[in-house]
Amino acid sequence: MLNLILFGPPGSGKGTQAVKLVEKYNLIHISTGDLFRREKKNNSAIWAEVQSYIDKGELAPDSITFRLLKAEMDKTPDSVGYILDGFPRNVDQATSLDEFMKNQGTSVSVLVELIVPDHEVVNRITGRGKIEGRKDDQDPQIVQNRIDVYKSQTAPVADHYDQLGKTKRIDGLGTVEEIFDRICKVLDIVTV
Ligand code: AMP
């Protein structure tokens, strides 16, 4: 199995790259942000529980997030691997994931971090907010909060996998194709 954590700040291009990676490697793409947006669309009980966190740019509770992720993974038991996008978002989520994967007889193969400077992240997020109408992408204060949460809670996840020799950092600036090539080079080494 190839289990990839596609990692980087909000607006670093994870979603765009995931679409291309799915095509090339046949992996299942799971974005926890998308899972929450699906709950929002369905106006579900889960959405009622997490809305206040997400609208402020905070992380949703780990237990709810992990439950959603596992339910989504359970839908594709025969998958050759996963691209996790937006998960894990803190070290507790990473250790839960490691344990879960171990019980399934698999593990995280690699974490690829897209390195993008702050000012570029802000430009990209606000541009996307206008196109997609995402509330958490439009308000500068919420955007800043998401970047702060990324730095304080999420960035340590890359260090967690670095200690396991699984973190690969790549330049997240350039064209979509250039960045895709960089990711593929990393994956082609991991999969041989
Ligand atoms: P994203 O589309 O990945 O930027 O996620 C949008 C929002 O959903 C985040 O700002 C969080 O509020 C929430 N979210 C997404 N993934 C997670 C996660 N793994 N843990 C907690 N909250 C999450």
List the main descriptive attributes of the protein structure presented here:
five-stranded parallel beta sheet, Rossmann fold, 9 helices, single chain, 192 residues, alpha/beta, binds adenosine monophosphate, 5 strands
Structure description:
With 192 residues, this protein is an alpha/beta fold. It has one domain: 3-Layer(aba) Sandwich (Rossmann fold). It has a five-stranded parallel sheet with strand order 2-3-1-4-5, with helices on both faces. Helix 2 crosses helix 3. It is globular and about 40 Å long. Bound molecules: adenosine monophosphate (AMP). The site of adenosine monophosphate (AMP) has 17 residues, from helix 2 and helix 3.
Produce a short descriptive summary:
Helices cover 61% and strands 14% of the residues. It is α/β, with parallel strands linked by helices. It has a single domain (2-116, 154-190), classed as P-loop containing nucleotide triphosphate hydrolases (Rossmann fold, 3-Layer(aba) Sandwich), CATH 3.40.50.
Shape: globular
CATH structural architecture: 3-Layer(aba) Sandwich
CATH fold-type name:
Rossmann fold
- Ions, cofactors and other bound molecules: adenosine monophosphate
Largest sheet: 5 strands, parallel
| Low-pLDDT runs | none
Order of helices and strands: EHEHHHEHEHHHEH
User: Which class of secondary structure composition applies to the elements?
Assistant: alpha/beta
Q: Which band does the percent of strand residues land in? A: 5-15%
CATH class: Alpha Beta
Gap between N and C termini: 12 Å
Classify the helix fraction into a percent range: 55-70%
